[in-house]
Design brief:
Helices cover 33% and strands 23% of the residues. It has a six-stranded mixed beta sheet. The chain is elongated. Helix 1 packs across helix 2 and helix 3 runs antiparallel to helix 4. The protein has 224 residues and is of the alpha+beta class.
Length: 224
């Protein structure tokens, strides 16, 4: 897998969109032990500290309820830590009338957060797979994307996690995932490159190894 930061998204009709990573991604139950979470009061106290560090007064009228609001918003923004995205893929359908071509869901909008600066990563994911006798409800593909997105991470890891989950749970003939996103850590600070976007991809099975299937997937992703 190869990633690039460009002023324009990578054109999908190029023969090499990205080199495919071959390092397996650990399953959720193989990840490090769950972190012991602080209480709501401790979380709010941390926000008050940050407000003071930024140079403001957390006791002024406009900021009195901000710590509680921030804590509540974090529960929503990081809901992925309480979800197992693989479970969304467990219910499948075998009555497909013999359909055995690619299934591609484009433009799945997501919001994630950079683990280095805790700033938003906003983008869209394109997910496809080549079924092997069974399919999954299309909304479940979007749920898988959002389940992995609502965590602190890097885009490369998120891309691999989505593809690996679909491959291991559905066991299709192949999987393709392409993600394009704008990283606030680049557009709002640091190099201040507001027009940049990052494109990553993970292709598995026939979507990677069969040239015609790979080209069809990329054509469908770009809306052709």
């Amino acid at each position: 897998m190869e990633t690039q930061a460009l002023k324009e998204p990578i054109p999908f009709d190029r023969t090499v969109l990205a080199r495919i990573a071959r390092t397996p991604v650990p399953a959720d139950d193989e990840l490090e032990a769950e972190v012991e979470r602080p209480s709501q009061d401790e979380a709010e106290a941390a926000v008050r500290t940050l407000l003071r560090w930024a140079g403001d007064d957390p006791d002024r009228e406009g900021l009195l309820d901000t710590p509680a609001r921030v804590a509540r918003s974090y529960q929503e923004l990081f809901a992925g830590y309480d979800a197992d995205p693989r479970k969304y893929l467990e219910r499948t359908f075998e009555e497909v009338g013999g359909y055995d071509e690619l299934v591609v869901l484009r433009d799945i909008r997501f919001v994630s957060f950079c683990e280095h600066h805790m700033l938003p990563v906003i983008g869209k994911a394109h997910v496809g797979y080549l079924p092997d006798k069974r399919v999954v409800g299309i909304s479940k593909l979007a749920r898988v994307v959002n389940g992995y997105a609502r965590r602190l991470q890097i885009q490369e890891k998120m891309t691999a996690e989505i593809a690996t989950a679909i491959q291991e749970v559905l066991q299709p003939k192949g999987v393709g995932v392409v993600i394009e996103a704008e990283h606030s850590c680049m557009t709002l600070r640091g190099v201040n490159a507001p027009s940049s976007s990052l494109s990553t991809s993970q292709l598995l099975g026939k979507v990677r190894d069969d040239g015609r299937t790979r080209e069809e997937f990329l054509r469908l992703v770009r809306g052709g």
